[in-house]
Amino acid sequence: MTYYHDVLPLVLRSCASCHRAGQPGPFSLLEYGPSATHAEAIRRETQARHMPPWLVDPVCGEFRGRRPLTDQEINVLSQWADEGAPAGNPADAPQIPEQTDGWQGGKPDLVVRMSRSFLVPAGSKDIYRNFTVPAPMDRPRYVRAVEFRPGNPRVVHHAFVYVDSSGQSRSFEGRDGEPGYRFAMRPLNVKMPQGQFLTWQPGKQGASGDDQLPWLLSTNTDLVLALHLIGATNAQSVQCEVGLYFTDQPPRVTAFKLGLMSFAIDIPPHATDYLVEDTFTVPADVEAWAVLPHAHRLATTLEGWATLPDGSKRWLMRIPRWNFNWQGDYKYVSPLFLPKGTVLTMRYRYDNPAVASPTDGSLTPPTRVRYGPQTSDEMAELWLQLVLRDPKDLPLFEEEQRLHSIRLSETGARLRLASDPLDAQGNLDLGKVLLSRHGDVEQAERHFRSTVTTDPDNDQGHYYLGLVLRMGNHLEEARKEFEQTLRINPDDYRALGNLGLIAMDLGNRQEAIRHFQAALKVNPADEMAKEALSELTHPAPTGNAP
User: Fold this and answer.
1) Is the pLDDT of residue 188 over 90?
2) Which CATH class name applies to 256-398?
């Protein structure tokens, strides 16, 4: 067995996306020297099936870009190591595909980049930050694929690519003196294109997209890169870029991104086989094109399946040994037809053991772990890219997803409050559910008051308390709550707009104009503020027309 004749072909197929220059692998396998140096590690990691990483159980069928090595290929690597990792004849080497400046999808039609690098401090645990990147376009274009390059893959754990045509994200950029802005401040109108999985994780190959499902990128639009950053032993900078691939063809299908998930996560110390589930009944015929599972470090087994109306079961995703460091979306080779009435199920399992120290082996006792976005929290999500058989069914799916999300929020909130009736987040979430689902203003107000009593600096608690007070015509009390919201978060354009509405109700025209103008400065796409400001500055004519 030799490197050039036997090993390099395997590397090109299954390893080179990470183990080459500029990618997250710690060394390149496209050169003989580093490969020979690490021959024993290659043997050990491939025999243990840690590398190349592929988490999905074969029971799920075939996915595009599947990387696992066969038993025979693993034996080739093992024998090569046993024989001293010989190089062989370089003339036997297969041709290495040319990389276009490192772009796996070929040269992009447009490359956009963060204007400045961001410094990740040494040892940082979790930094969630958004970066606004303008996309200079002379005309609207359809985007068939997107390729994300992290710049420094050692500190970028994962990334999402969103779009913003409102200009609001641009207004947040750099307000704290650093590139980007805090993750939690991402405006509501910053969204991923309809039905798309524009994500990046270590080891992801090529670009995200499908020729049948391009999306429209308009002029004067920004890309928003939502990054999860983790620190290394020393401070490092990161400057990401995105390659866009255009097409003149509009989408040929209509896609919808459906999420199964659970907010009701509360894992006790030492728990084993802790279970969370979610289900969703498909309201119309669809095809599943892709799946994206997500959890954090305590997850062990991730499962998702479809129970068809005839009672048969189809696996959507099964990962028997979850690894937090290798996440991504998976595209089915053959789409799965899911007829109306199909029940989709997500079932995830978690263990919460003591953790051994990497330095002295001592055990760190486990702590209670609840739902949340930090790595030290837990999550359970299973996202499906569904293509509708009838595009007219899109509003039906959107409404069912909205109601499903409300039910999930209520379940999660009631779980939190069952263990602590004064839990600020639980009271806030349940108050929002009662307000949106049941219209129960009185009970919602009680939960919002509990939120701000327990957590006086909870800006959303003050905002929603102000909202229900304004709905009840308690204008002075409502104004105080919106002012408190802005004291904590000066960029809450909804609070500014509500202060404008209160001023209008009280006949304070100039004050109302000032608030609406301030709301539009934060969010130029705020339609309510636009309409109210137009009404105040260009009142409709009165009297009889001449």
Assistant:
1) no
2) mainly beta
Q: Using H for helix, E for strand and C for coil, what is the string for 356-377?
A: ECCCCCCEECCCCEEECCCCCC
Please check the confidence at residue 546 and state whether its pLDDT lies above 50: no
- Number of alpha carbons in the 13 Å side-chain half-sphere of residue 335: 16
CATH topology of domain 110-247: Jelly Rolls (2.60.120)
Q: Is the pLDDT of residue 542 over 70?
A: no
Task: For residue 458, give the DSSP letter.
Answer: -
Quick one: angle between helices 493-505 and 475-488, nearest 10?
160
Q: Which pLDDT tens digit goes with each residue over 32-45?
A: 888 888 889 888 98
Same fold, 110-247 and 256-398: yes
Contact indicator for 130, 180 with CB cutoff of 8 Å? yes
Residue 67 tokens, joined: 């990387």
* Tokens (6 digits) for 542: 């009165």
255-261 and 156-164 as β-strands: parallel, antiparallel, unpaired? unpaired
Residue ranges covered by each domain of the chain: 3-92, 110-247, 256-398, 413-537
In terms of Cα–Cα distance, which of 295, 293, 288, 290 is closest to 304?
Answer: 293
Position 23 scores a pLDDT of: 67
What are the residues facing 129 on neighbouring strands? 182, 227
Reply yes or no on whether the pLDDT at 213 is more than 50: yes
Paired residues of 388 in beta bridges: 286
pLDDT tens per residue across span 47-59: 887 788 788 998 9
Under CATH, which number does the domain 413-537 receive?
1.25.40.10
- CA 337 to CA 316: how far, in whole Å? 11
d(CA 229, CA 130): 11
Which residue from 387, 314, 380 is spatially nearest to 344, judged by alpha carbons? 314
Q: How confident is the model at residue 193 (pLDDT cuts 50, 70, 90)?
A: very high
Give pLDDT, residue 541.
60
For residue 546, with 0-12 CB atoms within 10 Å meaning exposed, 13-18 middle and 19 or more buried, which class applies? exposed
Backbone angles phi, psi at 392, to 5 degrees: -65, -10
Q: And the tokens for 175?
A: 């307000």
**By C-alpha distance, which of 307, 298, 310 is closest to 273?**
298
Q: Which of 327, 330, 414, 423 is nearest to 375 (CA)?
A: 327
Distance (Å) of CA 110 to CA 395, 449, 453, 518: 33, 50, 50, 34
| Cα gap 439→226, rounded to integer Å | 34
Token pair listed for 201: 């994780």
* pLDDT greater than 80 at residue 357: no
Q: Which of 99, 122, 96, 88 is nearest to 6 (CA)?
A: 88
